[in-house]
Amino acid sequence: MHTEVLVFGLVLLMQACVPLSAQTLAPEPPDSPGILQRLAEKAREAKAKVQDYGAIAVGFFGAYYEDHIQPVTHSYAEWASNVRSSMWEKVQTRIDGYIPFRGTNATDVM
Fold this sequence. Notes:
By secondary structure, the chain is mainly α. 83% of the residues lie in helices and 0% in strands. The termini are far apart.
């Protein structure tokens, strides 16, 4: 009678363990070439996204510069250019005052 109970218990134990062993996951293959290709594709997508955001930011700052900064600085740049021109003209007239004869070649000076 003990053997019948033991056999019956083993049959029940096997019926309980078979579905558990069928549910185990298959091991993943180590470092398949598909992983490297997927990483390269993800890197390309990230690079494209960063470049798109960079283009948007450059466009925004360019428009901001044209609308807000350039009108203010343009008058200062003109003022500085005019001051430089007038100073250069003053220097040229002083130099012309110190050099009595201005010839185009060496024979005109003598």
